[in-house]
Specification:
Layout lengths: L3 E8 L13 E8 L4 E5 L6 H9 L6 E6 L2 E2 L10 E4 L11 H10 L5 H15 L14 H13 L6 E5 L7 H18 L3 E5 L2 H7 L2 E6 L2 E6 L1 H6 L4 H6 L6 E4 L1 E3 L2 E4 L2 E3 L12 E5 L4 E4 L3 E10 L4 E7 L2 E7 L9 E6 L5 E4 L2 E2 L6
Parallel strand pairs: 3-8, 3-9, 6-7, 7-8
Antiparallel strand pairs: 1-2, 1-4, 4-5, 9-10, 11-15, 12-13, 13-14, 15-21, 16-20, 17-18, 17-20, 18-19, 21-22
The chain binds adenosine-5'-triphosphate (ATP).
The site of adenosine-5'-triphosphate has 11 residues, from helix 1.
Amino acid sequence: MAKITLSNLRHSYFPNPSGPEDYALKAIDLDWQDGGAYALLGPSGCGKSTLLNIISGLLVPSEGRILFDGKDVTDLPPDQRNIAQVFQFPVIYDTMTVRNNLAFPLRNRGVPEAKIAERVAEIAGMLDVEDMLDTRAAHLSPDNKQKISMGRGLVRDDVNVVMFDEPLTVIDPHLKWKLRSKLKELHQRVRATMIYVTHDQTEALTFADQVVVMQDGEVVQIGTPVELFDRPQHTFVGHFIGSPGMNVLPVVENGGAVHFEGHPVALEGSIAGEGGKTAIGIRPEFVTLSDAGLPARVRKVSDVGRHSVVEAMVGDTPVKAVVEGDVPEQGAPVHLAFRQDQTRLYRNDWIATEAAS
Ligand SMILES: Nc1ncnc2c1ncn2[C@@H]1O[C@H](COP(=O)(O)OP(=O)(O)OP(=O)(O)O)[C@@H](O)[C@H]1O
């Protein structure tokens, strides 16, 4: 397995790009550590597939280099990069048995039969598919086909990286959570460098030790799931991660003080920089209904199971609060309190407050 370095990577699908908007990837510098479990998370069109194709060698970047363990592979074709890939849809041979499907990537590389048998048994054990080994792949359910596809991606122990591209797309919703945790467990046992591409925050946060969040061709934050939740560096991360996402509320900044809808708001710490578009970010989990606080009127209450989400209007701006227990009626006047150590200022969408020590 290898450490993967992306250095100063940019990519445009246009022959003569003239501005940042012409780039599908805009300046990416990243180190993926050897043996790490990474997720590449972002909405459709943010550049995930472009980045994946550059790592696998299907696409040559317009600028920048890709290194595997310090060795420049930018100009190497896919078959010389030693990568295993699991795609959205199962890639298996229907006429072969599960055993032969799992053995295929090893036979292809001339691995001795005894070693193949050992490795296939090991992977089949990890995936709980031992009882299917002699079944023809054509007879498997779509879920099991995808499991075998994953097994084929994991069976070689000499690859630089295993890349998963939205691998749970075809999986039945009620089985998704099972396979999600299975993949995490597999990483812990196999210890390969793995990159998991998805637009689904739950999949990314379950699988990865480090999540790389992308928006519009840029990496906006790399962090553990907890870091992304606790301290979003960019409003996009706050909004995209969490359910519901972080409240991003426009504020007026004046001499170190900020006002939201005319009310002063206390921030977590001192403010950096000046000017630009300012907003505060506070997660709905840290907004409470209280006796004092910002006057608001309830617009909507949604019961989401373990708790409710109350959306209340402060002036013209909706604010969401996660509420346990009793909830007010629609239209009721309430007061909202923001937990100060969780209230951050964002300037032009980037965090602009120091954390309270
Ligand atoms: N072959 C291509 N030619 C021109 N533009 C492209 C091409 N492939 C992708 N793009 C553009 O590059 C940007 C990034 O696309 P990319 O497919 O990498 O995003 P993504 O995050 O993988 O999205 P999705 O999840 O929908 O596949 C988008 O604006 C897309 O329209």
